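> run fold Diacylglycerol kinase family protein
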Amino acid sequence: MRLPKEIAAFVHAFRGIVQSVRNERHMKIHTAFAAAALVLSVVFRIPAPHFLLVLLAITLVMSAELMNTAIEKTVDLAMPEQHPLARTAKDAAAGAVLVTAVFAVIVGLYVFLHPVREWLAI
Ligand SMILES: Nc1ncnc2c1ncn2[C@@H]1O[C@H](COP(=O)(O)OP(=O)(O)OP(=O)(O)O)[C@@H](O)[C@H]1O
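> ok
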């Protein structure tokens, strides 16, 4: 039985996320940080606008890492040997992840620093 086109596309996209989390070390790390941020959000009952910021940071980092993986795999297929253009492409893709990760750290400090300090009473 063939799935309708729209459902098949959804299944392929979901498979892409699951494979990336299973096989890519950096994606595992991002997933662990995302899970920790979600748990902390619930534990500290952060306000809705702060929770939206946390969700935005998670979305940006995860989607940048998925695109980074896609670019890495495509470059490896097209250019298994060393090549300056392959290096440029991979470095730029990694740079995109770094930019989003810096944003996520800033969001993490902005949202969680105050509740953590209150909890520790410092
Ligand atoms: N074909 C290539 N030609 C030139 N430089 C490359 C090539 N492949 C990788 N590099 C260099 O090595 C770096 C790391 O590439 P690699 O594909 O190992 O990614 P990675 O960040 O280690 O990802 P992962 O840990 O997810 O595999 C790139 O950013 C690039 O500078």
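Residues 84-120 form the longest helix (37 residues).
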